[in-house]
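Q: I'm writing up a methods section and want to include an example of the input and output format. Could you take the sequence below and give the corresponding predicted structure tokens, formatted cleanly so I can copy it straight into the document?
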Amino acid sequence: MDEQEHGPLAGFTIGVTAARRADELIALLRRRGAAVVHGPALRIVPLADDTELLASTKDLIAHAPDVVVATTAIGFRGWVEAADGWGYGEELLAVLRDVELLARGPKVKGAVRAAGLTESWSPSSESMAEVLDRLLDEGVAGRRIALQLHGEPLPGFVEALREGGAEVVGVPVYRWLQPEDTGPLDRLLDAVLARAVDAVTFTSAPAAVSLLSRAAEKGVRADLVAALRHDVLAVCVGPVTALRLQAEGIDTHQPERFRLGPLVQVLCTELPARARVLPVAGHRVEVRGHAVLVDGALRPVPPAGMALLALLVRRPGWVVSRADLLRALPGAGRDEHAVETAMARLRTALGTPKLIQTVVKRGYRLALDPSADDKYGG
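A: Here is the clean output for your methods example:
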């Protein structure tokens, strides 16, 4: 395959559940050749006018904590901006200058420094588990710890601090809610159930929870879990995001660095590795989600044709009956003529009609070339 021409994700369709930074992720995927189905699973609701955030801010100004943990750049910026809007900005910054300020990762560190502050420490792993280990190693008994919440579950984090004797104060800067318009999310869900996407990306734990919840509302939760367990790759930005899916028995993939670029690289590695490569009639045929590479040339294939090809690929070299092919066609009914029509379009799409042979009165077969197995790794 000529990856420079087509991109490593050419022929694959990827679902995106992100709301925040979705445009950036989609651009990265399309730049590498992927088709994208975007179904935002969340919307972010800032709490700049929220009485709970205001009360937390005033409480921390009046009773300064010993430690402040900043968990997200957008959340930390939103907190400082909200305090400034209420007229408490300088007082909050004065408090933050005098405490042990922990920043989870480089982006949070950047937001801290943009506010004119300096972090006391930041973990190299960007992991809240490492933050927790540091705090517990220091000893938290009798200490007041403010935790800037970011809408995602932190399993055991607050509990461990409280068990260690700390007073934990939550700072709720924004909340995640289901999208007001669930249409795009429903379309993504339908695409996953139909196996019309090859992978789904999750950039926050609430997005995974939201997709599962929406599937439950529509009565297809078990079907969604089955699709993600067996057919559709679930790729998460990090281990916290993956936890909810793993609890459903879904295998997840995530990069070592919790960033969008490395997440896309995981897809660039995993999806091509899953593609079926076969030597057929003297050609190298690589079958992907919605396209086929024939000797490196990208050939988009319509859904009906891909359904037929998928069945032929599962039985390479063997004759597949028209009746079996008809059952594989979505919504074809009982008319075997639909198989002939879809097969003609498939051959046209592939650009090399001899790849698929007609076996008179029996069906169709891929013209497999077994002698080329070693050459193509088939």
